[in-house]
Design a protein that fits this description.
Rossmann fold, 7-stranded mixed β-sheet
Amino acid sequence: MAIRIAFTNIKGGIGKTTSSVALSVGLAQRGYRVLLVDGDPQGSASSNLGRKDIARYSLADCFDGIHVTRVIRDTEIKNLDIIPSNLNLLNTIKYLEKSERRVDNLLNSIIDEVDSEYDFIVFDCLAFDNILLTNLYVAAQYLVVPVKLDKHSLEGYDYLLNKIEIVRADLNNDLEIIGVLPTMYRHTNLHREVLESLKKSAVGELLFDTYIRTSIRVEEAPFYSESILQYAKNSTSAIDYNSFIDELLEALDLA
């Protein structure tokens, strides 16, 4: 059975997609079979891997009855496949929210069809609370919460915890936060202070020891449809993401 990990935060612009793509690529480079599920209508994860194509099947089609094996696409990275997304997913969200039947477990059922083919299934979640996010949480096992190091780092965190508890109570009691990942770190007094305050906050025990330093390479990589681990494997950000992956595997007793 695959280990399922979702990257989530109610806030956007905090490195969620960059992190989910980096984890997927890094695990694949380590020899694990990985499926990345792009759960965001913006399709940024798909674009970052060169697989955003409005004319091809996408996650939205899975909800419309197209079998998931027809939607999965390979990538240029050995061992890494993707279920891409695009703006068609917005119509799916509208349809699901109007449905009179139970629809919160649909994605889990879709992923179950191919679960045995992979070692890891990684979900890149959208930054809005709706029926699609519920589906993503029901399908996941572990949550990684990226947080940008600024004065609003924990804005929305209590809301996120409440959402998780609702899903745990009613739909997926195996769901848990495996860690909080500080991102976009700069070696400034302000960021050092924010990081220290996070360690002393309610999330302190959940913080990964690794924090992701920012670099211009992270911003450049998507323009070349590559992960930071491909585009600039020796950059500080890539080094940090590899450290994060090592730490995550250790937390999963796979190191």
